[in-house]
Amino acid sequence: MSKLKVISKVAGFRRAGRAWSTEGETVDTSDFTEEQLEALKAEPKLIVFEVPAEPKAEGGKETGGKAAKGGKESAASN
């Protein structure tokens, strides 16, 4: 699922059936039609950019870089 960050240059500006804030909001693209997505991206009063997808850990578990790395180092030192 793809995500967009939408930031309005004008507080409460409306486009695609929603009011947008100047602080920004991250939304799923699946919540909008293709026409609405095109309107959002073309609107000069909005700043719209794609948000990179978060990597999924194996087995649905979240792992931190240090914890996973530490686990490997511990196993290697045994």
UniProtKB/TrEMBL annotation:
UniProt xrefs under InterPro entries: FluMu_N
Domain Mu-like prophage FluMu N-terminal: 8-50
Region called Disordered, residue ranges: 52-78
Biased composition (Basic and acidic residues): 53-64
Protein name: Mu-like prophage FluMu N-terminal domain-containing protein
Species for this entry: Tistlia consotensis USBA 355
